[in-house]
Amino acid sequence: MNPTGNLHDRAAAALRRCGASAPALDGAHTVTSPIDGSELARLHPARAADVDATVAAASAAFGHWRQVPAPMRGRLVRRLGDLLGEHKSDLAELVTLEAGKIPSEALGEVQEMIDICEFAVGLSRQLYGRTMPSERPGHRLMETWHPLGVVAVISAFNFPVAVWSWNTAIALVCGDPVVWKPSEKTPLTALACHALLERAAGDVGAPAGLHHVLVGDAAVGEALVDDPRVALVSATGSIRMGRIVAPRVAARFGRCLLELGGNNGAIVGPSADLDLAVRAVVFAAAGTAGQRCTTLRRLIAHRSVVDELTERIAKAYSGLRVGDPFDDGVLVGPLIDGRAHAAMRTALERAELDGGILVTGGDAVEVPGDGVYVRPAVVRMPAQTDVVREETFAPILYVLTYDGFDEAIALHNGVPQGLSSSIFTTDQREAERFLAASDCGIANVNIGTSGAEIGGAFGGEKETGGGRESGSDSWKAYMRRATNTINYSDDLPLAQGVEFG
Ligand code: NAD
After folding, report:
1. ipTM, 2 decimals?
2. Which of 97, 139, 203, 472 could form a disulfide with 457 if both were Cys (CB 3.0 to 4.6 A apart)?
C-alpha cells in the first residue's frame, strides 16, 4: 500500500470527477501505477472488430465535421480548453498516478493542453492559403486547405495527455476526427480526456463520433496503421516503433507524422554562464526521471569548464530528492517499470566497459511498494561510444569533453537521432554558428533541451522521424492542399504558351 493512499481509489475518483466511469476491474488489460506497482485498473482491450467499427464511426463523423466551417469547429476546442482548465488538477493527478510525474510537471503537462486549445481556436480563423500570380491573363491561381480525414493518434507513456492534445486540438479545427490509441501504460488519462471531449461536443452541439479511444497494445496500433480509412497516422514513441509503422503506412500511401526518440545534446562553451548552465542541465537531464523525449543525455563541455561543470552538476544532483512523486519536495519520481531500470543498468555497465567513469548516481532508491526509483547518473566518457549514441530512456547524463568548436559540433551531430539541442555560451558568434550547424528540429541558446513551448513546431530530424506538431504551421499536416486555377476571361490560353488546335 502506498503511504499516499490507495492509488486505485484516487484514480477512480479523478476519473469520476472528469465524467468518466470508474475503471473496469475485470478486463485483460492491467494498468499499474509506477509509484508503487499497485493495480489501478483491468480494462477491456479493443479487439480487431472494435478497431474496424471505430474507424467506420470516425469516417462517418468526418462527413459531417468537414462541412462545419473552421471557426465553428474552433468552438468545440474552446469548450474543451475550458473543461481541461476546470479539471486541471484531476488530470494532473491521473498523470502522476499513471506516469509517475511529480505534480508540478503533471500540472505543466495539463497546462500545455490548455495552451494548445487556445492556439487551435485562434488557428481556426487562420487556416490560410496563398494566392499566387498566374502567368495567364484573366486567371487566378490559389491554394485552398481542406480537411484530411480520420487521424489516428498513437501516443507514448511519458507525455500521456499533452501529445494527444497537440494532435487533437489541431486536427479538430482542421476538420478531422481522431481515433486515439494511448500508451498501454497510461490509458486512464485517455479515458478522462475522452469524457471531457465528449462533454464539450455535447455542450456545443458537435456531431457524435468525432473522438474515440482504443485501449490496447501494439496490435491495436498496427490495426489502425494498416487501415486505409485512416488518412494520417500521428505516432509518438520509440524509434523501434517508428521503423515498423512508417513502412506500413507508406505501403498504402497513407500519411505519417512521426515523433520518435531523441538523444539530445548540449554544448557548454568556454564563455558560458555556468550558474545558468548548471540549473538548466539539472532540470533537462534529471527532470521527469530522464523520461522525456527531450531529456538531455549528452553534455559536450569545453575542456576549460568541464571539471567545474561536472562537479557542480554532481553537487546539485546530491540535493535532488528521489521518491514518491506525491511527497513534498520530491523532484525525481519513479521509472516507468523494471524494464526501464534494466535498460539503465545495462547502459551504465556498457559505459563503464567503454572507459566511462561514474561521477554520481545510478543506484536504486528504496521506496515502499514495488515502484522502481533510481538516482540520476552522471558519467564522464572518454569518447562518444555506441552506448552514448543510443537513447536509454532513463536519467543518465554522459559528459564529453571538447577542445575546438568544430569538434563539439561533430560530437553533437554524431548520433542517429535529431530532436533537441542547446548551447550555453555568451559568445554571439558561437551561438549563431551552433544554430546553423545543429542538425536537430529544436536548437536553443542558454536554455536546456527540454520544456518546449506549444507555439513552435515540435519535432526532430533523422531517426526522430521528421514530423512536426503543435504550433507554427504544423496544422498543414492535418489538411490537404489543393491548387486552384480560375479562368475569369473569355479566352483559353494554355500554360507555358502551348498551342493546341
Ligand atoms: P513505445 O514505442 O514503446 O510506444 C509508443 C506507442 O506506440 C504506444 O502507444 C505503443 O502501444 C505503440 N506501438 C508500439 N509498437 C507499435 C506498432 N508496431 N504499431 C503501432 N503502434 C505501436 O514508446 P514508449 O516507451 O511509450 O515511449 C518512450 C519513447 O517515446 C522514447 O523513445 C521517447 O523518446 C519517445 N517519445 C518521443 C516524443 C517526440 O515527440 N519525439 C515524445 C514522447 C516520447
Report:
1. 0.99
2. 472
